[in-house]
Every structure is written in structure tokens, then in C-alpha cells.
Design brief:
This protein has 333 residues and is an alpha+beta fold. The chain has 9 helices and 14 strands.
């Protein structure tokens, strides 16, 4: 009988210990990486900020063409052809989107992007047709491969890769995967406008995403809402030439940054922006870029052939901006 209070005390302590476990809190991390901004919100009992920053570093060391010592820079210069898991991941995804888009999504367009002044080298002088033709000879990811030893096999020694149109999306996916491994089920990862999200926000509501309206002939980057959607657990990406273009001598936008791997020249498309929803952000990122190289009908036809992928296109109909969506694109809130 004398031991009973002691036993009760132990039980009370155990119950109290369980009751004091802190509820997961919503945490926020903002900053800059890969020459763009990021905004990340997640619900977790512990901070995972260091793990997020570690993923940023891994991706940069592997895939940044702006870092001379990165694995992809060494491959581009032909100094070392060994690939890593991240390069293999974006390469295989790029090959799949290249096929789905009829060759219009192609990261080996890198030398042409550089020629037109949107890449990691060169850029202020209008390229000649001879320069364009020479660069086109090296373009073609369908003619590249990774051998059984993990080495890159390029179409030509001059072939270079710039996976920037898919890397931000993959970075969002990598962080999302890290969150899930750590038991995080509610998160929103945004890097340079590309987003991976799952679960609910701090108000216990689905994440809401604003899609911007393209601003044509504007000298500043302005976020003008077009619509707000709640697409659920997915990856979402928007591509548009209206924020990355060269100006003519009068200061007007002359051509955008989407370069055709067929003509070697900036794409003259009526599509002003493409917002893609897909099961993962890497796929959404690449498909949004592919849509920018297509006419609206072809872009929607491509999207409608792909499972669980939806699109919103904003395009010029004469002098008027209009929209078109695939059948299952979420209705605005």
C-alpha cells in the first residue's frame, strides 16, 4: 500500500510527458538561391532549414551551368563525363518531355540560348545565321545518352546542357521528398515561381496559388492577379516570355528567352504564359517551357495526352489577351 502513491506519480508523469509534446508548428524560410528567390512554408516539430539549404547546395554543385566546377559544367566543357543522381534524374525527365513535345523541349539548346544573350555565356551581339547554324549542329538531347557506367554520351563534343528549365522544379520536388521522409505532410515549396505543395496551410485550408496576368510592354515586373486556384497536392509551374526578354533600340520588347531547338531563333508564339499542374513540379516546369514553344492548340493537345496534367494558357488573340484551359484545370476561387 505504501508504494501506491509512487506508482500513481509515475503514471501521472508519463501522461504529463505525452501531453507536453509540442504540436507541429508552421515554419517559414525565405531567401535567394540559383539567382532567384524562394519561399517555403512547412509544418514540423523541428526545424528542417539546414536540410533545405543542403539541397540547394547539392543542386548547385551538380547542375548549375553558372558554377565552373559543377558537374554539368565539366560535362559541357568535356573535362569529365561522369554524371550523378541529379543529372541522371533531369536528363531522363528531359528526354521524356522532349519526346512528348515533339522535340520542342530540349536542354541542349544551351549554346543557342547563350548566343541570344539569355544563358551563362556570351550574349550582347545579335548572332549571325552562320553562328546559329553551327550551334544547331550540336542540339539534340534525343541523340545523347548516359552509358551503363554513368557517363554522359553527347551528340557532338560541342553539345552543352542547360537544365535551368527543369532544375527549379526538381529542386522543389527534392525538398518535398525530404519533408515527407521527415514526417512532414503539410508544406508549400516555391522556388522562382515553381511550386510543390501538399496538405493544408496554417488556417487548415488547402493551399491557394495566385496565377499572374502577363504584363506586355512593361518596363517593370508587376504581379497582377489573373486568378487564384487551389489545385491540391501537386507540382505547379508558370513560364512566360514577358519577364525575360531583349529590347529593341526603342526600348520595346523585341524577343523572348524561349529559343527554338528547330530554328535556333527566339520563338514567335502567341502564347504569353503557360501554367501547368502535374503530379510533380519537375514535370510541370519542363512542360510549361515546352508550351511556350508551341501554338495554343498544339500545347493543349500535348497536355491532354498526358495523364494527370492540366494547363492554363494565356495567349494573344489579335491584340487581346485571352485564356484557354485543359478540361480539368481547377476553377478559380
Amino acid at each position: 500500500m505504501k508504494k501506491l502513491p509512487f506508482i500513481i506519480a509515475i503514471i501521472v508523469a508519463i501522461v504529463a510527458g505525452h501531453g507536453c509534446t509540442p504540436a507541429p508548428a508552421y515554419r517559414q524560410l525565405d531567401g535567394s538561391t540559383w539567382n532567384t528567390l524562394y519561399h517555403i512554408v512547412y509544418r514540423s516539430t523541428t526545424s528542417l532549414d539546414d536540410s533545405i539549404r543542403d539541397i540547394f547546395r547539392q543542386v548547385e554543385v551538380s547542375l548549375s551551368p553558372f558554377v565552373d566546377s559543377s558537374a554539368i559544367s565539366l560535362i559541357n566543357r568535356g573535362e569529365a563525363m561522369a554524371t550523378d543522381t541529379l543529372i541522371r534524374r533531369v536528363f531522363n525527365a528531359s528526354r521524356a518531355i522532349n519526346q512528348a513535345s515533339g522535340g520542342l523541349f530540349d536542354p541542349t539548346v544551351a549554346p543557342l540560348v547563350n548566343l541570344w544573350g539569355f544563358g551563362y555565356r556570351g550574349g550582347d551581339v545579335m548572332p549571325s545565321q552562320a553562328q546559329i547554324d553551327s550551334a544547331l549542329m550540336a542540339v539534340g538531347i534525343a541523340e545523347c545518352a548516359i552509358d551503363p557506367d554513368g557517363n554522359m554520351v553527347k551528340k557532338t563534343p560541342a553539345t552543352e546542357f542547360n537544365f535551368s528549365a527543369i532544375t527549379k522544379g526538381m529542386g522543389c520536388d527534392l525538398i518535398a521528398e525530404m519533408f515527407r521522409r521527415n514526417g512532414v505532410s503539410d508544406y508549400m515549396v516555391e522556388i522562382g515561381g515553381e511550386i510543390a505543395m501538399q496538405g493544408v496551410n496554417s488556417r487548415r485550408q488547402p493551399w491557394h496559388i495566385q496565377v499572374d496576368k502577363p504584363v506586355i510592354n512593361d518596363t517593370a515586373i508587376i504581379n497582377i492577379p489573373l486568378m487564384v486556384i487551389a489545385p491540391g497536392d501537386c507540382g505547379i509551374a508558370t513560364s512566360g516570355n514577358y519577364r525575360n526578354f531583349k529590347r529593341d533600340s526603342l526600348g520595346n520588347p523585341a524577343f523572348g528567352h524561349t529559343i527554338s531547338p528547330v530554328t535556333g531563333r527566339p520563338v514567335m508564339s502567341r502564347v504569353a504564359s503557360a501554367t501547368i499542374i502535374a503530379p510533380d513540379c519537375m514535370t510541370a516546369d519542363a512542360l510549361a517551357t515546352a508550351c511556350m514553344a508551341m501554338n495554343p492548340d498544339s500545347a493543349l493537345a500535348m497536355i491532354n495526352r498526358l495523364p494527370d496534367v492540366h494547363a492554363l494558357l494565356v495567349f494573344l488573340d489579335g491584340d487581346t489577351l485571352t485564356t484557354a484551359t485543359s478540361p480539368a484545370f481547377p476553377r478559380p476561387n
